[in-house]
Amino acid sequence: MQSDRVRPLTGQNDRVRISAKTDYALRAATELAALSSADPVKGEAIANAQGIPLRFLENILGDLRNAGIVESRRGVEGGYLLAREPAAITLADVIRAVDGPLANVAGTRPNLLEYQGSTEKLREIWVAVRAALRSVLEETTLADLANKKLPKHVEQLVADRDAWEVRI
What we know:
CATH class of one domain: Mainly Alpha
Helix content: 40-55%
CATH superfamily of one domain: Winged helix-like DNA-binding domain superfamily/Winged helix DNA-binding domain
Distance between the termini: 26 Å
Strand content: under 5%
Structural class: mainly alpha
CATH architecture of one domain: Orthogonal Bundle
Number of helices: 8
Order of helices and strands: HHHEEHHHHH
């Protein structure tokens, strides 16, 4: 089910695949960061605020709890809250908690690949792609998103009109 808050653009040939689970996890964690309350927040409130199916969100919050990103409290006053300050949690932390490594090729980490002949430099390309992802996702925090202020190098990437161009 697609949320009203997120509408995919046409042009399906440019792809970095972001799973719904990753998208929902980042939205839920950012919602907790934006609330910046010492009081736990009910899963239902997060689901409603972000248009995330509650059952799916509860599984995601479990993954985030297991990774030490969120804490849960039981009882009538219970709910979820961030386990650390939002500035100490990167987008990469959240993604790895719910989907594993940032980049892999057919389930293998790029640095472990081996190619022969004309494709031997392909491993370096995949490692460079991973490094580019890291430069954005490891340097952007939940606090950045919640405060609607991205790191300068990310703002520069987004400011490039070419970044918004859909190529077929």
